[in-house]
Design goal:
The chain is 37% helix and 19% strand. By secondary structure, the protein is α+β, with helices and mostly antiparallel strands.
Length: 621
């Protein structure tokens, strides 16, 4: 009809699809974004927040790579907090509450301003495939739209089914229909599909909550934000609140367990272990009389509240009855009940590190279709799929991040080598190189890579270089500036740190755990002048660089040593069954997953160090 042939078609406009479309288009590809509803682009279907433990690091990485999630979060946030500040900097994680409606609106605005992105509101019911190569999509309106590559980011919509007690009906989320046809076609083409389950809690009318009986949780005084490129301008913040369930609440919820689709077996999909429903928590932790709930505002100009921790698929009347036994919620009215949703996903071992499928060329998967959960994980995959779809379309080198370069690298490597048996969620514990993968240095790790791809702008690169120059200048000052005992001992005594008897460099004193850089710079006029002219992020980055230099270098050496395994390539047609010295499990899994290199092979569950040694000896021969 009136469609041109696109370089990339992105199916779905959630967090994965939006980042995929933006990345490919900003790199120069002609992109068509197909979605069922243009009014729900990048909708926050669950909680109205971005970031958190490890997730905040991912958002900062997306920003450093030129993605939009960090920028849009900063522009729409209503509260900011830096989590884990009591721990070391490797654990610090930014988190923001966003205005849910503004977030979606801002995403659409950004995409509409992005050159090379076209939009089409329709349902995709199938793929155009010939000789194991995808060349477009078939829509519900009966249109065949051609492209050089396709990215599927279907979220929870593939054969989606919503459950509330004994009620169940098709849907991708409440108010939106499910998507049919794609799973069936891909299974016919040889893909392995499974079912997963996730859920969401009741939404409550804030006018009916007695906040005086809840514990207030304010945002940080210092708002840092996510984007390295643009600073947030948050003049005020909205508070979150903390409430608690009780034994009485649990008893009421238990009266509906026999009607729960999760306990009755009507839900086949596997749910998230780390974000369980309230009934699952009560069942698994039966000895616990109370669970913490976070009462989160949905935006600046709405009375709707999200009850984090009260996800449920129990009958709606039981949800409300139990909710009203929570202190402060005695008169609560709800906007909608919580529900569970089942949907199809595809075993991610069927993907290459670029997120292109192994079975069908030029077809990419990103987001919950790969068995992940969370906006941040989805957005990261979308960004990487968008980049690699562009690279493949234009015969350019693939772009893959390794585990020591980014949490995004950890995420994708985990998916394609280990697979999933429950919705995958990122944690700092999943990364071996947490000291390297901090939230403060994502720009140092990734900006130049993004610029070489053509994604990060010249302006962004120059801003990054200017920041690095300021950091190194301050490090040089600390390494060269010496202080006398009479100048600094009063500060050391106040900080309960050992006094000095001779001149010492500021950098040496900064290694002491009791001291921080702001205190050390405040002792004289020169230092106070530096503090007044240097951005707080530069102060923080400098302190981390000096304090943890030895740990950072040690981790870099370890990463470099292990990275050598990544250089040992494995042929895609390698006959593992011919190597009888390998364990049977190793032969089976290596033949199925087809790792690209020895490093990836070493991380596959069930592959032992002995198996890797056998492979290394064989390859050396």
């Amino acid at each position: 009809m009136y469609f041109e042939k696109y370089d990339v078609i992105v199916v779905g406009a959630g967090h994965a699809g939006s980042e995929a479309a933006a990345a490919a288009a900003n790199m120069g590809s002609r992109v068509l974004l197909v979605t069922m509803n243009l009014q729900t682009i990048a909708q926050m279907s669950c909680n109205p927040a971005m970031g958190g433990i490890a997730k905040g690091q991912i958002v900062r990485e997306i920003d450093a790579l030129g993605g939009y999630s960090g920028l849009i979060t900063d522009r729409t946030m209503i509260q900011f907090r830096m989590l884990n500040k009591s721990k070391g900097p490797a654990m610090w994680s930014p988190r923001a509450q966003s205005d849910r409606m503004l977030f979606s609106m801002e995403w659409r605005k950004m995409l509409e301003k992005t050159r090379n992105v076209d939009f089409w509101q329709d349902t995709v019911v199938g793929l155009l495939v010939k000789d194991n190569v995808v060349y477009g999509v078939r829509t519900g309106m009966g249109m065949n739209i051609e492209s050089k590559s396709v990215i599927l980011t279907n979220g929870t919509f593939l054969n989606g089914k919503i459950h509330i007690g004994e009620k169940s009906f098709g849907g991708g989320r409440m108010g939106d229909k499910a998507s049919y046809g794609i799973t069936e076609q891909l299974v016919e083409l040889g893909f392995i599909a499974h079912r997963m389950k996730t859920g969401t809690p009741v939404r409550v009318d804030g006018r009916t909550i007695d906040f005086s009986r809840l514990t207030e949780q304010k945002g940080d005084t210092e708002v840092r934000g996510f984007s390295y490129f643009e600073k947030p301008h948050l003049q005020q913040q909205r508070s979150c609140w903390i409430a608690y369930t009780s034994r009485n609440v649990h008893d009421i919820l238990r009266t509906g367990f026999h009607l729960s689709p999760m306990f009755s077996g009507r839900i086949e999909g596997i749910g998230p272990r780390y974000c369980p429903s309230i009934e699952d928590k009560i069942d698994r932790f039966s000895g616990k009389d109370s669970h913490q709930l976070f009462v989160e505002p949905e935006g600046w100009n709405t009375v709707e509240y999200y009850i984090n921790g009260f996800s449920s698929s129990l009958p709606d009347d039981i949800q409300v009855k139990a909710l009203r036994r929570i202190e402060g919620f005695e008169n609560a009215k709800i906007f909608r009940p919580g529900y569970a949703i089942e949907y199809d996903y595809f075993a991610p071992e069927q993907l290459n590190p670029t997120l292109e499928t192994k079975r069908i060329r030029n077809l990419f998967f990103a987001g919950q279709i790969n068995g992940t959960t969370g906006y941040e994980e989805a957005a990261a995959q979308g960004l990487m799929a968008g980049i690699n779809a562009h690279q493949k379309t234009h015969d350019l080198e693939p772009f893959v991040l390794n585990r020591s370069e980014a949490y995004i690298g950890v995420l994708i490597d985990d998916l394609i080598t280990k697979g999933v048996d429950e919705p995958y969620r990122m944690f700092t514990s999943r990364a071996e190189y947490r000291i390297l993968l901090r939230q403060d240095n994502a720009d140092a790790r990734l900006t130049e890579k993004s610029y070489r791809l053509g994604l990060a702008t010249e302006e962004r690169l120059q801003q990054f270089k200017s920041k690095q120059k300021e950091i190194h200048k301050l490090v040089d000052y600390l390494n060269s500036k010496s202080v006398r005992p009479d100048q600094i001992n009063s500060l050391l005594e106040k900080s309960e740190s050992s006094l000095i008897n001779f001149r010492q460099k500021l950098s040496a004193l900064l290694l002491r755990p009791q001291l921080n850089l702001v205190d050390l710079l405040s002792y004289d006029e020169e230092g106070r002048k530096i503090l007044s002219t240097v951005d707080v992020e530069i102060i923080e980055a400098t302190e981390i660089m000096v304090k943890y230099e030895r740990y950072i270098e040690k981790e870099k050496e370890l990463a470099d040593k292990l990275h050598r395994l990544e250089d040992v390539k494995l042929k895609p047609d390698f006959d593992y069954h011919a190597l009888k010295s390998l364990s049977y499990e190793a032969r089976e899994k290596l033949s199925r997953i087809r790792p690209e290199n020895l490093g990836q092979a070493s991380r596959i569950s069930g592959i032992s160090p002995a198996d890797i040694s056998v492979l290394a000896v064989f390859l050396d021969r």
